[in-house]
Amino acid sequence: MDFLKLIADRVVLFDGAMGSMLFASGLQGGDCPEEWNITHPETITHIHDSYYKAGSDVVETNSFGGSSLKLASYGFADKAVELNEKAAQLAKKVAPPNSFVAGSVGPCGQFIKPLGDLDEETLYESFKEQICALVNGGADIICIETMMDITEATIAVRAAKENTTAPVIATMTFSATPRGYFTMMGVDPNTAAQKLVKGGADVVGANCGNGPHEMVELIPAFAAAVDAPLLFQSNAGLPKLVDGNTVYDMGPQEYAAFIPDFLKAGAGLIGGCCGTTPEHMSQIKKLLQELRR
């Protein structure tokens, strides 16, 4: 099945959170999530399998922080290829027919010159290494996500486009301000959408940072800026601190109730981010099936 043809034909359902699922499974603060691809493979495959069984067409690999630059903070920079290949292999292992594995690529965690010390060529090479390892491991799609810096995001898109034939998704994270929605680095949705598409992204959108109330407000800006498929994955509401723990308390049915608004606003690919679970995706799948009748 061709992913780009599929998204032209119908709404495509992604998975939900990986990070909060890992913490629920025992990951501790300060642990490297990507190391679990080697040390806890059964846990990772169980999470992927749960999302597929919930009806997700696409699951994202456990590789969000898998660039060598990000892994260096755990002392695992030299394990980038191994951890990313394994991430893709674990998802592919349980992928049903006519489903897809998206290689997750998150921010490197460093500032590019002149704001920081990181040069663009080093960043490009780090993303290239990660993305090629994901594709070699079996990823069908590359999903560059939770980006704040448009330069970093477009470098990641270029690394994917120049070194693989995989479709490329790029999403950024926005926060509400008195002047509208912007990323932490001051990028507005219109600029993000246009630059990402110009850079070669096949699908663009937003993830994380907001609950569905806020995410619905972002979609029209993307829809007006570009003629491209749009992916939006919000958190299960806004985070709350309970007994020192971050909690997202929007349940599956409440979350799924927003999906018709996502679709009316222009989203063609949907899923979830922090706090969402297979149960959230199952509710969305049921709703999508009802809408298709």
Automatic annotation (TrEMBL):
Signal peptide segment: none
Domain Hcy-binding: 1-288
Keywords: Cobalt, Metal-binding, Methyltransferase, S-adenosyl-L-methionine, Transferase, Zinc
Domain of life: Bacteria
Cofactor or coenzyme needed: Zn(2+)
Binding site for Zn(2+): 208, 273-274
Keyword Mitochondrion belongs to the record: no
Family, as annotated: Belongs to the vitamin-B12 dependent methionine synthase family.
Name recorded for this polypeptide: Homocysteine S-methyltransferase family protein
Organism whose genome encodes this protein: candidate division CSSED10-310 bacterium
